[in-house]
Amino acid sequence: MARFINLATALEKFDEYPWPQLGSVLLLSLVYYVLKALRWHYLLRVIDIRLPLRRSLLVYIAGQWFAVTPAGEFVRAFLLTRYGFSFSRGSAAVSAQVFFDFLSLAMIASLSVFWYNYFAAAVLAFTAALIVGMLLFVNGPLVWQGRRLPFAAGPGTRWGNFYQYSRQLLGWRPLLVGLALGLPTVVVGSVILFEVARGYQIAAGLGQSAYIYSLSQLVGALSMLPHGLGALEGTSVALFHYAGVDTADAASAIVLFRLATVGWGLILGGVALLALRTPLAGPLVPKVG
Questions:
Q1: What would the mean pLDDT of 113-137 be, rounded to a whole number?
Q2: Domain boundaries, the chain
């Protein structure tokens, strides 16, 4: 990174950002997390996890406190066990949430290749593989004609329950609702990047910001690093550089973007985690079973 980017110049660029604009960026970031939390609430209801809306949203946002830890997403499933729901059921909701994020990012990136066609083959191939993989997973018992599947143990086991709940969550109606909330979430994330870049006078349109955002998020997720730390930033700077943007400007914009999303999410997650232990979360939910 030090050889590719003048880090001293990148740090100096922070002084050039119009800081009053940060309020609107943080507000957009809050909308981003609320949209994700609403989709989470819907997915829980699909598999018959009935929590009041306020508590359900707080459980999702509280998970952001653990976002930079390995497998931090599954803390949300652990939080659900406090209300008597099995970890396998909660894990199915978490996995479906992650899948819808992947699919929404891939679809936006695929649409963007008509205007920014570099890496088009890789993006379109990944999107096709994701859709085919989903169809094989959902229709596994039909495709393999009753043979034992490697990812589906017998009913009543943890893996068996996880598989059945996951199939419910990937039905056509949850899929449509998941994408109806997932695609706008990606658009909001793209607008956040666009607004940060605009503050640095970076000449990148909303469409180009959507392409850089969706592609870098996919690379970060596939890196298997917590929140794609390092992989996402490097990909974003490289894509901005490929588009003719100075690397110091790009690096400053990406660092601020990550602080306004991941950093802000950590703060929101900490607040939500505390709120779950107070009357602000609403009435207590009796344990199931």
A1: 79
A2: 8-281
